[in-house]
Protein 1
Amino acid sequence: MEPTSGKAPFDVIAPDYDASRGGTERAAGFADMLAPLLDPGLPVLDIGVGTGIVAAELSARGHLVHGLDLSPAMLARARDRLGPRVAVADACRLPVRTGSVEQAVSTWLLHTGPDHAQVFDEVARVLRPGGRYLVVPAGGTRPTDDVGRIVGDLEERLDPGRTRQDGPWTLAPIAEARGLVYRGRASERPVTFRISPRDMARSLSRGLFTGAWAIGGEGADRLVEETRSRLLALPDPEVQRVREAADYVMVFAKPGPAA
Ligand SMILES: C[S@@+](CC[C@H](N)C(=O)[O-])C[C@H]1O[C@@H](n2cnc3c(N)ncnc32)[C@H](O)[C@@H]1O
């Protein structure tokens, strides 16, 4: 079985990452949400750039993007897309000068496990006054169909401290404690996606589903197996469920004159 609790699971799933996360369509959608909030005349730091699929779409819209990521295998793909403007680095210890960043983004980073307080410590440090940090959360809304309820239950049990929750109710107080201002949501758009119970069960066992990676909960492998059985016991497990959610950008700003 692929890792559900390993330290660097993104190195394992890197070859499957783009295709398993909606490919270019998702990335283009995120870039369309972010681009109107970014100044095209200033560079962008993408923290947790992954394979660079979103950063490449931002580049295609005229932005100069630098990327940092912990996973060498994800980053190898980002290097193919962005060239040498990427580096291996931890979001909790950014190799970036204090007060030097005008604008930073993270898409689907904070639900994967980095310590939110440390990330915001670093973001607050590297942003220049007036700078902004734009975050697209993974768990901003939770689907309520039968697959979504079973998977949500798994996520709760694997992460009882809710350290992976990345909605504004979690992040805004953390950011504000570090002197950043939460300016609210922007670029909100409904998204619909489809998955069958069987495909979700398959994705769990291949380690593709981030929510199944344990942080501090009960025995991860046993819980994942239980969840797979629950999914496969649903009526019509081959039939795709239509899942409704919403994507949005959270805007954090460091007080000071805008650039
Ligand atoms: C779900 S992927 C998202 C990648 C990309 N932003 C996207 O939207 O396609 C999360 C990425 O965050 C990276 N990551 C997780 N923890 C990190 C940390 N502490 N520092 C830097 N990158 C981290 C992972 O290696 C992975 O590439």
Protein 2
Amino acid sequence: MNNLTLVIANKNYSSWSLRAWLLMTQFKVNFQEIRIPLDTPETPALMNQHSPNRRVPVLKIGKLSVWDSLAICETVNERFLQGAGWPSNPDLRALGRSACAEMHSAFTALRSNMPMNCRRMVKGFKPDAATQADIDRIHTLLSDCLKQTDGPFLLGRFSIADAFYAPVALRL
Ligand SMILES: N[C@@H](CCC(=O)N[C@@H](CS)C(=O)NCC(=O)O)C(=O)O
């Protein structure tokens, strides 16, 4: 047993949770899952109990807590995947890391105007200019990644970059 627990919110709404969960599930890492429902009276106390920054996802490795989806994915890659979470080619790794960092620090219009909810279909949605600019940038970024290999995933084999951009595909 790895003594691993991933604390997440509902995967339908929490794109950051989904990213860590997808990586660990796709690579068949053995972990337990604790789900904290968002926006309930119990949410703040549960966040306090499980998360250093009162946000999810959090990965618990024994007594160690790792928070933030990107830190979790890198830690899982290093400790449990022997590096298989990134391509072996260093240029592709750098591209994937750039793409994930950009996901982390950008696309604010897309995130606020196109929230993740796989169960909901929106008819007649017209993105505003800022949202359209995010969509255009994502299209360019993903196309640039896909051009590098024969696929089938963004950088060839499934990688952390796919875990990071799957929720974006769901938003679109
Ligand atoms: N940058 C963080 C973002 C984490 C985040 O904002 N998580 C949201 C859920 S998607 C959260 O925990 N919100 C707390 C709350 O709504 O009470 C990451 O990548 O993990």
Protein 3
Amino acid sequence: MTTVSIDSERCAGHGACVTVCPDAFALTGDGYAELTVDRIPEELVELVERAAAQCPERAILLAAR
Ligand code: SF4
């Protein structure tokens, strides 16, 4: 299982993650990213990995469990 978290200290609110994977990320009213899923469904893992790779702040942390 893959888990994901966002380092809120690093997130600068570019929104790239939302563009890449809108099924797992959203922007809060403040313009920063939040997760919309607790666990990443298998079909979203590739997109979430791509979002993490494209985050300019390296704020998306993935862990395999
Ligand atoms: S791409 Fe990274 S810095 Fe931008 S909103 Fe998403 S988590 Fe935050």
Protein 4
Amino acid sequence: MTACRVCGGKIAAPAYEAPAPALTSIMTLLDIPTRVYVCDRCGHAQCDEIPDIETFYDIGYRISLNSEGHDQIFAVKPDGTVIYRTDHQAEIARNLLDLPQAATLLDYGAAKADTLHKIVAARPDIEPYVFDVSTDYASAWNGWIAPNAQATYEVPAAWDGRFDAAMSHFVIEHVADPIGFIRGIHKLLKPRGTLLLSMPDVSANPGDMTVADHINHFSEASLRRALAAGGFEVSVIDTTSFPGAFFAVAVRSETPVKQEQDATLVQQAVERGLEICDFWRASAAYLEKRADTFRGRKVAIYGAGFYGSWIFSRIGNDVELTAFLDQNPNLQNAVHFGHPVIAPTAIAEDAEALFIGLNPLKARAAIGNMPHLHKSGLQLVWLEA
Ligand SMILES: [Zn+2]
């Protein structure tokens, strides 16, 4: 039994449960089981909190921190041009926020604040502020954000009511009290100030359901409810600009916001949540069987991102892994869980199977475009049975 973090409703039993290890968003393994609960009252899905959550984000969570130029790849255009995630995020944010001249903009849970940096580069009139729960990022802020516009661990009381807008990218999925989190930002905005929140959309990226530190999996229904509970009127929920994510824009209300619940939206969210849980249960059981078939034999995993890492967490001890294959040049030549990451064309001649670690909604189309992976003697193993 657990309580829904959005509506407070009781959820009797998990819809998905898997034994340890659990995989985090930064591709580390935690020695905890995975348990996903789906709330049938508001359409929210959630996992147990990870142990010692403060320390994990303070010193354990150094996303994209190692090299200045490192960024996650959002997409590769047909001509080979790479679109980086924070460039794309900054463009969406600029368009959605549509800020007035000389606006004050707070990046809440900023990490290195790359998105804010790129917004300010395009709009030098904007006054940037940052907040995070770690001091790891100060060196990335210094030089372009005034020292008194930087806050760590706690937001100064003087910031209450100061901001024209606040944005928080891919943070709320990590927090144990999402309503308190939204209320905390409400307090910092001016009346009618704008909030931009981005987060994974599990319905479009089902792998998100099993990410250990993504303890909230919002649906449109639960996101609307959470924003209302936090004192915001929703203007836009954009599900298309960043496939696999929600970008929500909401306006600070000065009076309590009525929580209108759309029963159809809730029902859709619940059905989709349960469907994704069923998918992972079936996939885990199927992978176990396939790992048995290839026990001690040479196999490769396609994808060094979340899905490939998840496959590794399930079969890594059973098979002889030759390599992870990945198209991302930033990952090639790296070592992942003790195994090399190589270009897909460099797959070992003697690999007998290739486990496909890609978003199941896109995997077959992506692999279909790679003729060198379709050859005799190489079995392709998909996530779905
Ligand atoms: Zn709920």
